[in-house]
Design goal:
Length: 273
């Protein structure tokens, strides 16, 4: 049995988890991520908070046999990550990138090295869960929508501004729009907005859901009809709730999930160590 520590550094948050090589990688039980957590990139810039995180992780688990990580944030974050555990000597750090090979999955991206490492890891994580035609939707800083065929081929995908980014860009690039606050009465989104707040949140939600729907139609057009949609990332719960209100989308095989990127890093370590 080997112990792995995996880190997913996104543009907003750093997520981590510890897993044992003997655990079932297809397990969807939340307990799978018993040792896991996240910290905002902003907090991770603070030496004091990094020391706290390091202390917490190193007291929670023994020295791991390997640490797998991927990063789509600034490269300085990688330096901070790699200096996190001075208490553990000779750590085996493995960086996963968009061009890291993984047996059983290949991408049609023209330059795989340019594919976001987190998108590629999420696709591998999805593959570890099932061999069906799958749409991988990651609703983080950006929203990414990727099609993975049951044959293990990544047909490419789309990148949209994430929900917060959409709303923030309206505020920062207009004279009259505020930063919208999501109403707790979600039914408001299922109609045309009758105030600025509803108009913004409803519009941004509709853009995200419209892209998912368009991807489902396109997958059918290219003869890889979607059999499963994984919804991951910081805005997955919001979007899943919105989706339930739209019969056309609610009928789709959509499931919220956590940690697809971390799962992909784990699968990659299993295959390469
Ligand atoms: N506790 C949180 N901290 C930061 N962002 C959050 C939180 N909860 C929800 N969000 C939303 O999730 C997004 C970040 O999601 P995440 O999947 O961590 O992104 P990334 O992988 O790009 O870092 C933010 O843009 C924000 O809209
Ligand atoms: C699209 C992304 C910004 C998403 O990042 P995230 O929202 O997870 O922080 C990231 O995957 C990235 O920088 N990709 C590189 C370009 C590409 O995938 O084509």
């Amino acid at each position: 049995m080997s112990l792995y520590l995996v880190f997913d550094i996104g543009n907003t948050r750093l997520k981590w988890a510890a897993v044992e090589s003997t655990q079932n990688i297809a397990d969807r039980n939340k307990k799978l991520w018993a040792y896991s957590g996240s910290i905002s990139n902003q907090s991770f810039q603070s030496p004091e908070l990094r020391a706290e995180l390091s202390d917490y992780i190193s007291k929670t688990m023994p020295k791991p046999d390997a640490i797998g990580f991927c990063c789509v944030a600034a490269s300085a974050t990688i330096d901070n990550l790699r200096s996190l555990f001075p208490q553990w000597q000779n750590l085996d750090w493995k960086q996963f990138t968009g061009s890291s090979p993984y047996e059983g999955v290949r991408t049609l991206y023209e330059e795989p090295g340019k594919l976001g490492a987190d998108r590629w890891a999420a696709l591998i994580g999805a593959r570890a869960l099932s061999n069906t035609n799958t749409l991988v939707v990651n609703t983080g800083t950006a929203t990414t929508i990727d099609l993975l065929g049951g044959n293990g081929v990544h047909y490419g995908g789309w990148i949209l501004p994430g929900l917060s980014l959409m709303q923030e860009s309206l505020q920062s690039n207009t004279a009259q729009l505020p930063l919208a606050i999501r109403s707790s009465t979600l039914a408001a989104q299922a109609k045309f907005g009758t105030n600025t707040n509803e108009a913004i949140t409803g519009g941004c939600d509709a853009a995200q859901m419209g892209a998912i729907l368009r991807a489902v139609y396109l997958a059918k057009e290219i003869h890889h009809p979607v059999e499963r949609i994984w919804l991951d990332g910081g805005n997955a719960k919001i979007l899943a709730t919105e989706i339930k209100q739209f019969p056309e989308l609610a009928a789709l095989p959509i499931e919220p999930i956590e940690g697809l990127v971390l799962r992909g890093l784990w699968a990659w370590l299993l295959q390469n160590l």
